[in-house]
Amino acid sequence: MKNKIDALHALIFDYFANNKFSIEHNKITNLTMLFFLRLAKEDEFFSKKEKEFFLYIFNKSLDEKFLSIKNNDLDGLLSNPLFISTLIEQDNSDSELAESDLNFLNSIIDHYQELGNLFVQSFTEPNDKKPFVLKGLIDKWQILVTSSSKKSKSSIPPMQQLKELIGLSTIKNEIQDLINLLTIQNKRKEKGLPSIEINMHLVFTGNPGTGKTTVARIIAEIYKDLGCLSKGHLVETDRSGLVAEYLGQTAIKTKELIHEALGGVLFIDEAYSLVSSNQNDSYGKEAIETLLKLMEDYRNDLVVIVAGYNNEMHTFLNSNPGLLSRFNKFIHFEDYSIEELIDILKLMFNKNGYSSDSDKLFYTHFFEVKKKKNFANAREVRNYFEKLIQIHASRIISLEHPTDLDLVTICDKDILNTNQFFLDKK
Hints:
Strand order of the largest sheet: 2-3-4-1-5
Distance between the termini: 53 Å
Low-confidence stretches: 67-75, 77-95, 149-154
Structural class: mainly alpha
Largest sheet: 5 strands, parallel
Strand content: 5-15%
Number of helices: 20
């Protein structure tokens, strides 16, 4: 059955690659990938089986473009810089489509209806054999686009997001100072006065879970609002996203990731891992050299933030004179205090509809946790919260008629049991 499905898809795609729309092959693959990827990610309108079908079309279209990519995992594909870099030349997947593009997609959807019927017949469960109705996908797409646009417009301003973060008072002040400097330089430029070119690349140092990635995402938005970046998005990576498996491919992989980040911020976590004690490690060196060159080439629309442990980051920067000259602004993220950890936990309670006022028991737990060698700050809070609501659920499930208060209240017994669980793990 799979061979029949693949053969029919190939026939459909060949037809449209040589059709009356006069759309080039590259545009056809990109349009199809973008459209069906967006639908495959949507939970509101479509069943699991429908999304499997959309993802199948997406992957087959992807094969048309890059036969070397054989990954059917959606998250894996989304994190693949080779795949992402091919889409940046198109509008974002939540953008309005041109009329010619809509005509093309409407036509190819009609042909995909037969493919969908065949796809359904391949399911083993009788209940799954209900036919797909693909007519109306464009209308649903446009609803999604409108919804996404509204969400974007109603988002909290980045400076407000920064102010609402728990703790980080020193970091907030440092970022405000940087914003003030950039703002005044922009005003001087508008008045025809000499302006200084400000280095916007940053070094974040500190332990895991201290908010480095969150702050980097906010800074990307701030830089966009100030006119320093065209898009203001964040692309996260580490050594594995920059360094290839085979010699000669690292520069290509690094370039593709940087192209994805253009207009925004490239955030390299554990950047020090690019520098190895192994003298034969030429891969990390190649990645750094490529990064430095492209930072210069795209200095007007790319910001790079490197992050990691304090001592290791200094070793990393001292490994190459080019790194030292480009990364000269340091922001250090201190560990959260016990009180701040409790505030973060309470914020998780509020966002997820739980409540508790047992601060003393929380204090006891975090006092012990902070002694750990590899204390991970807010990540520890997340782990604690998830275990806490699991233990709460195990208690509530035994109640014959739980009240609304039961469902939202984390009691002392839940907390004591959770604290004991983590003590036993030590």
